[in-house]
Amino acid sequence: MKSADPSRLPTLAIVGRPNVGKSTLFNRIVGRRRAIVGDEPGITRDRLYAEGNWGGRRLRVVDTGGIIPDEAAQIPTEIFRQARVALDEADAIIMVVDGRTELAAPDLELARLLLRTGKPLFLAVNKVDTLAMEPYAEEFHRLGIRNLFPVSAEHGKGVAELLDAILEVLPAEQPEAGPTEITEEQTEEVRVAIIGRPNVGKSTLLNRLTGSARAIVTDIPGTTRDAVDELVEAGGKRYRFIDTAGIRRKGKTKLMAEKLSVVMARKHLESADIALLMIDATEGVTALDANIAGYAHESGRSVVIVINKWDLVITRHLDGSHRPLPYRAERSAGRHHPGSGGNGKRPADRRLYEQQVRNALKFLAYAPVVFISAKSGKNIDKVFRAIERVAAERRKRIPTAEMNRFLQTVDFERASVPASRRVKIYYMTQAAVSPPTFILFTDRPVKLHFSYERFLENQIRRAFGFEGTPIWIKNRARS
Ligand code: GDP
Ligand code: GDP
């Protein structure tokens, strides 16, 4: 469920070496509230992205700490090229330096690279806590960045001037390419993003999916630098796997790989219909998995949860290695079940495991779960089948007449909504597909209470399915 907010906010990236005060500035701009989604447990984790508000305008801030490697005096071009994925979506960049230290070679190097992006660039000379220190900031003009602002992120000084200047160049909030209008012709091709933490098996799965079927084209769209999609035909259907070059690329350090996996996921979600969210079965759902899953949910894309490396789950126990598995099927621990088919796992193990994954990712209750071994190729066909099913559900349209017959059967008294927030519901219509978006016509122009939304979503799913896809519900007062 989601109260749709289908706008693209102007985006601001904060870049700089360690300890210059990036996080302090980030927190200052977003008001220390990194959490975005209020009532969805599990998504409100440490975010790379947060929303801020300045002078009545909303903006999105990206903390690039760890993506732009900060310690290296020379940033290898290859690393910067990767990190640029994060900068690509920025409308403006703030480079932060420590005004109390001498200008150093890495700062010059970073400034040079940032200037080359051609994006509006602002230099925040931080830790200029007193007026007496301001003249020292002048030194940093040597970086070649014209927009220089002495600030004290800690004390909030100069931050207003900096943000005012940035907002002048930021584009206005853009309506995003939201759900597809019903009238639009649907293409047959299904666009798939493979997302997940480093090492969950994304490249391995990709090789399987493109290898098991007929790869017909490798196609390099002119617009997106570096992006290589692979088009595959299986069972008479066409699938486009998005930015396969990006999926195969690896981060140089663990931290960088992890942050890039989030940035990549967000980027890939943008052009996808369906996300294969990969989880490493030997590790269970980690905070980073939940974080990436949260972005998938918010994006409105359909999701299939792919639990990979299922081949390892029991083998590990048989190994005698007692490495704790956070979500392992408890009852199978240390035991082998010969004759239970497959590689010694019972259907019960799978159910238990699935339950635990679902507990950790409650907001993805609509997503089907498949267990695979990308390495051995086991159950790869199930991935294709899940994609196909979910793609069809995503495009499903319920006629208004049917919708309203359904609405008659719903007992809204059962939704636990405070009396003051109750609304009278007149009728409902499906306004869009991909994702299915419903408009509810009510007597008052108030935001639907989330219990209403949740209740209604459950009823809609019970009646119509919509497996794999989030459902967006909006309401309008009937005048
Ligand atoms: P990051 O590594 O770039 O994210 O830097 P942090 O935001 O973690 O800040 C590093 C250190 O600098 C922390 O101890 C902050 O308290 C301190 N700091 C940040 N901004 C200021 C400032 O404006 N003035 C002073 N004096 N210290 C600051
Ligand atoms: P990525 O970083 O998400 O692209 O992950 P990779 O595809 O590079 O896989 C990371 C490691 O996990 C590699 O050593 C793979 O061989 C291994 N791996 C991937 N899938 C499986 C699987 O299903 N079973 C086992 N045992 N290993 C796997």
Write up this protein.
The chain is α/β, with parallel strands linked by helices. It has 3 domains: 2-169, P-loop containing nucleotide triphosphate hydrolases (Rossmann fold), CATH 3.40.50.300; 184-394, Rossmann fold; 400-477, 2-Layer Sandwich (GMP Synthetase, Chain A, domain 3), CATH 3.30.300. It contains 14 helices and 19 strands. It has a 7-stranded mixed beta sheet, sandwiched between helices. Helix 2 (77-88) packs across helix 8 (254-270) and helix 8 (254-270) packs parallel to helix 9. It is globular. The two termini are 26 Å apart. Mean pLDDT is 80; it is low at 1-6, 33-45, 182-186, 217-225 and 315-342. Bound molecules: guanosine-5'-diphosphate (GDP) (2 copies). One guanosine-5'-diphosphate binds at residues 196, 198-204, 308-309, 311-312, 373-375.
Quick structural summary:
The protein is an alpha/beta fold and 479 residues long.
List keywords for this structure.
19 strands, globular, single chain, Rossmann fold, alpha/beta, binds guanosine-5'-diphosphate, GMP Synthetase, Chain A, domain 3, 479 residues, six-stranded mixed beta sheet, seven-stranded mixed beta sheet, 14 helices
